[in-house]
Amino acid sequence: MKQMPKRKLDKGTLLRVIKYFFKSYPVLAPIMIVCILFQSVTATLPAIFLQKVIEAIDKWQPTSNWTEAVLEIRPLIILLATLYVLSIIAITTREQLMAYMTQGFLCKMRRQMFDGMQNLPIKYFDTHKHGDIMSYYTNDIDTLRQLVSQSLPSIIQSSVIVLCVLGIMLYYSIWMTLIVLLGVAIMLLVSGKIGGGSAKYFIRQQKAIGATEGFIQEMMNGQKVVKVFCHEEEAKSDFDKINESLYQDSYRANAYANMLGPIIMNIGNILYVLIAVAGGVFLAANVPNFSISGAAFSISIVVPFLNMTKQFTGNINQFSQQINSIVMGMAGASRVFSLMDETPEVDDGYVTLVNAEIKENGEIIETNKHTGHWAWKHPHQDGTLTYTLLEGDVRLTEVDFGYVEGKTVLHDVSVYAEPGQKVAFVGATGAGKTTITNLINRFYDIADGKVRYDGININKIKKSDLRKSLGIVLQDTNLFTGTVMDNIRYGNLEATDEECIAAAKLSGADTFITRLPDGYETLLTNNGSNLSGGQRQLIAIARAAVADPPVMILDEATSSIDTRTEAIVQRGMDKLMEGRTVFVIAHRLSTIMNSDVIMVLEKGRIIERGSHEQLLEQKGTYYQLYTGAFELE
Length: 633
Hints:
By secondary structure, this protein is an alpha/beta fold. 59% of the residues lie in helices and 13% in strands. The chain has a six-stranded mixed beta sheet, with helices on both faces. Strands 2-1-3-4 form a four-stranded antiparallel beta sheet. Strands 6-5-8-9 form a four-stranded antiparallel beta sheet, covered by helices on one side. The protein is elongated.
């Protein structure tokens, strides 16, 4: 049997949540705490009030002088009523502040999580389930909501009431207090045993929820594949296993938690009876009272003690019930903080991309206007600046790389792309074609070798500026919720409608866009599921075109387009590629025949390079691919 993780209340995470909350609301949070304290202290006053009333009645009863008794009780009633009115105000203020601050706190947490997520390297998303990441923003954040808005305030309130009631009980009778504390010790022992089992299953439940959401997200994205391969029954079976695990963890967690409350409550009821019996015995036997107040043992002490016992044990029960919620909240908080604490993408670059103007003497100067020319702005240690015209010269020299340390996937790869050249990569799946383009835009950093852009080591170029100079069309198209125009403008947020339409015409997308119900204002949802694969790809190409980058990377850009549409797109892409350095990855050799350089990759190595005609003359792997004697595997 798998050993269960030990119950552990992560104090560091709890303190971090509290510190984060108070830092978010340095003024309102203390006001809320004051309201909780005032409300808690006020809740303990009826015991004192009841003792004074019974004492007054008991004192004046032999003479039947009720007027004096009323005069003595009246100020107490007025004081208690006033405190209760103030308590209502405190409760109302607390609840309003709590609602405002909790939602604001969660909003800030989500914003910080999302902002941090945008700075994470691509590797993080390649190694984590997307559904599990989504769970951070839903289930884990919800546990934080319960922790901040319910559990922690309840813990504070219960603790204050317990301490105040304990002080009042000690003041009136130490003997009676010892009996109560004996019962509370039993309650805490039971709470520790049962609560421990509950807490560790709540932690497992939180992880199981993330795994379940991750699986469901995968199934939703791959539903067509599931149906095509008739994998429904296997998918159900896999889901049943994950769902069963979640059921078992949730069932045990809640079984323990639901059992704890009734047990603690009934121990409290037994303790109530014991206090009543003990009080009666003490009164009958005239047992001398031992107390801080020095008051004699009387009915005016026994009766309030019964109410204080109920209040004391009730808040102990409330306290023990919240421990599990806090443990579950800590499990959620730990996951949230794990995302927030992920190491962001490292960017040590200092060379930036600027608009450039070329003077008649050839001097390059920086300008705020878009001139159609770009330059690399290179600051030096002596305070001087040099500008290098962006031409699109990209060179990889003797590059080695592996996604996992110790497992190299690129071996001694050298690629030379001169400005305006079209460089194509051909090879079987896994040969390293896409990996090379990932290194050019620094989604990953090389293990050895050099990558230079216009003679500048790309490690010196700020990643945002480097990627701004690169346009990319991926094999897997991603469209976002919004209009067609919005999705095209994604490539350049400053582009006008006219520029977006021109980019669509260039890519060949305008033809089908104008036939949509609302044209360019047609709303796309669910990754453009209302469009065909080819249409989605055309919009992606238009998006790259409107960015107008000096270097283009086309990773199987026409893979989702039929042969007829490909001819239309190819004409537009030929115009798009004019004057630009272009890297093309393609299985269809017809799309790369006009490339200046074609490189054939095999198992991470470049085994052939040259133009279409040169490679045919070599009669090697490329020749075999072209003549059909060999197929990519």
